[in-house]
Amino acid sequence: MDSICQSLAEIVGEGHVSNRPEELYIYSRDLGTAEPHLPRYVVAPRTTEEVQQVVKLANREKIPVVPLGGGLTLAGLVMPLRGGIVLDMKRMDSILEVNERARYALVEAGVSQGKLVAYLNTHHPTLVHSEPGAPGQATVAGNVAIHGQGDLAQPYGFNSDMVNGLEVVLPTGEVCRIGSCSLAQQWFTQHPLPDLGLFLGWCGTTGVITKVSLRLFPRKRIRDMGMFVLEDGDLVPDILYRISHTEMAGDLIAWSQELPVTVSGLHNISIFISGDSEEELELKRKLIRVGILGEYIHSGVGGLVGLSANVRPRLPRRPPVSTIQDIKKGGGFEYVGAIMPVDTYPECCRRGAEISARHNIAYTLLGRVIGRSHAMMFSWSYVFNRADEDSVREAREALYESDDLALELGGIPWKPGVYGQQAVMERMDPNTLSLMKKVKKLLDPNGIMNPGNWEVS
Amino acid sequence: MALTEYRYSDVIHRCFRCGYCKFPTSFIEVNNCPAYARYRLESYSTGGRLWLIRAWLNDELDWSEHLGEIVYSCAACKNCAEQCPLPFSDDIVDMIVAAKGAMVERGSVPSAVKEFLENVDRQGNPYGTARSKRGEWMEGTGIQEYDGQEFLYYVGCVGSYDTRAQQVARALGRVLQKGGVSFGVLGDRENCDGNDVGKLGEEGLFEALAEENIRQFKDLGVSKIVTLSPHAFNAIKNDYPRLDGTFEVRHYSQLLRDLVRAGKLDVSSGFKAKVTYHDPCFLGRWNAEYEAPRDVLRAVPGVELVEMERHRADALCCGGGGGNFYTDFLGGSEDSPSRIRVRDACATGASIVATACPNCLTMLEDAVKAEGLDDRLKVMDISEIVGEACQARGS
Description:
The complex is a heterodimer of chains A (457) and B (395). Chain A has helices at residues 3-12, 21-27, 48-61, 113-123, 140-145, 153-156, 236-246, 278-298, 321-324, 345-358, 389-408, 418-427, 430-443, and strands at residues 17-18, 41-43, 65-68, 85-88, 95-99, 104-108, 127-128, 163-169, 175-179, 208-215, 217-218, 222-230, 252-257, 267-275, 302-306, 331-340, 364-370, 375-385, 412-414. In chain A, helix 11 packs parallel to helix 12 (418-427). Chain A contains 13 helices and 19 strands. Chain A folds into four domains: 3-88, Uridine Diphospho-n-acetylenolpyruvylglucosamine Reductase, domain 2 (2-Layer Sandwich), CATH 3.30.43.10; 91-218, Uridine Diphospho-n-acetylenolpyruvylglucosamine Reductase, domain 3 (2-Layer Sandwich), CATH 3.30.465.10; 222-306, Alpha-Beta Plaits, CATH 3.30.70; 321-416, ACT domain (Alpha-Beta Plaits), CATH 3.30.70. Chain B folds into three domains: 3-109, no CATH class; 127-258, Rossmann fold (3-Layer(aba) Sandwich), CATH 3.40.50; 265-389, 3-Layer(aba) Sandwich (Rossmann fold), CATH 3.40.50. Chain B has helices at residues 34-39, 46-57, 65-72, 79-83, 92-106, 111-123, 157-161, 163-178, 195-199, 203-220, 230-239, 252-261, 291-299, 324-327, 337-347, 358-371, 382-389; strands spanning 151-154, 183-184, 224-227, 248-251, 273-277, 303-306, 352-355, 378-381. In chain B, helix 16 (358-371) links the parallel strand 7 (352-355) and strand 8 (378-381). The longest helix of chain B is centred in the middle third of the chain and has 18 residues, at 203-220. The mean pLDDT of chain B is 97. The chains are: A alpha+beta (457), B alpha/beta (395). Chains A and B meet through helix 2, helix 4, helix 9 and strand 16 of A and helix 2 and helix 3 of B.
């Protein structure tokens, strides 16, 4: 054990630090197509104070620090591109407070989405958070650090817009609180203080988030869903716009996929609604089914499954991300998500199918509405066989092309890998880029935080 | 063994490491994999372990004692198989056991595993205690050696040698006597059932043990077996048939349920306590028997049965499976699964945590001591509770 490792062990305990080949191997690899990069140390802290001490040590020794949550961005954002310390935050997994009346949850950075859902189900059944639909080990803090979205994106926007407050360890080691928690022990709002949103969307390059206060929302007692199916993708933006205008829908997702062949070529709009009573639910159903979709149904452009009191499609327990990724029986799955204007949906689909065809991968395309059709997160997904280098390469190239496509169509790649980040920064206003660089330099003078990501040259 | 020779070479790369295997169905805790609970590093999760195994078989990683400990820290509890959403979920534990087999084949196993296997090979038990002492637990009980009775009562290594588990073996013997069951034991002639030997990847030794047991059972005319341990129950029920050893085998909780229902076991003296039940993996997830032990407890007047948040197929393993009750790769920490489990039990407000497995019993009892919960929580085997309720008392 070298002296750095010894110092880390003194901070977090010997069992929670490793520089052995086995841990370095596992933490060097992302779940997507990114090439591996070996860290020098893996550290799993339990407290903010431990994070603080690790960061102070790293800053003193100029060792990179890469905070890791669930590790499910798939884009290589938690790869130790310059080596250093991978900080596995998942031991910090306490739910510290749920304030029912102010509707927020205060959690440590390692709390998983699955745990928060389960905890609210059991202890606060009238509350819900915007759940991103990733496998359950994705963390709340990781999600806001990448501007994630969830199943309440349509009514309420990005999850990072739902943050009431943060506790962060700055790259220089200070513990800093953002929002009302900086004045008192109340975590109910970020506003009206001067904006210090320097940690959301920065992917761990400006500090280590250690606590998050996240807004919760009323959980309705009954849920229902319907699916409008049509062939003409050009109509999808209009339908999404009109459904969002009713303000009756929850999650709103348009999707199209090549497999199974029975759905190939079709576009599907999944419409989720909820209510506290059958009457409320029926009102919402009618406003969407009769008020909006009826016109399309009568003109013969599409058909509706569900959104009827008599037909209750089975609601998915969790989106089956993990089963989709095994289509090639190869264990590999990665997607480019991009924040796009909703009007680009048809072109995103057409061009996405072309990219998939070029790389011999069945297309899987999905657009989740964010806000009242303010934007959508559009994803181009590619499965690959992890044991086949050619398959990995094809998927990687398809992903790069999708990053380029998103930018070409006026969108912005969401949580892009290094390739996508560079493509974004090449097109960015120079003054904006310069501001990013100044912020980074100010917060992280030694450049230790997740170096290689969002690096302005 | 190279990756190409590995039985699961066409499957092992398909693990995505999505992490479902760490959770129970409810997702309430991320630590439902006992090895991940203990270490909280990705290398100790099921997915991490599978990726490391593949790297080792692919010559990307050298074998090390640490790699061996990571692989052997798998308690074969099957939580991963229960939770994995992918079509190969049923093979996950076998993938790990096959990797252990590859390590055995190369002669590269952690020293504690080597010791376990050598002890079983030499003395028929993992403790290395003399075979001639195997039957000492039954002294003074009046329990008969098997000689054509209806049931062979198969005790297993832990019940035969561990001091606390011996009490349970005797308690069950007395209950069976009280219930008028015709049964006998093998005493010093009993040998290791091989369940954990197989899960440690020593397939050759497992087969030798199983074949020897099958031969002895057949020579003695055994047709019905009741086991104290779910581990033995699992081996005899699921593995012995492929070696031409088919017997009518029951875990004792199943037999006790029938005896109580048939009125052959009078439990009317009752047992007044709030009790929570810990599901042993080799009874629950491996053999889907969740109800018999609960039915027995519910039949005892005075027992108030309360469930831990994680129970049945979602139960947290005590960490004793896959030989870990002896090799102890999961011990020594407040994050040891057995210690988490007794804290879970304590949170129910129960004064008794009951189980139906001698391995679980000893693991949980040690954990109660380590947690300093002796004055709040007592660990009992179901046979002991029934023993109290039917006044089949003894030491």
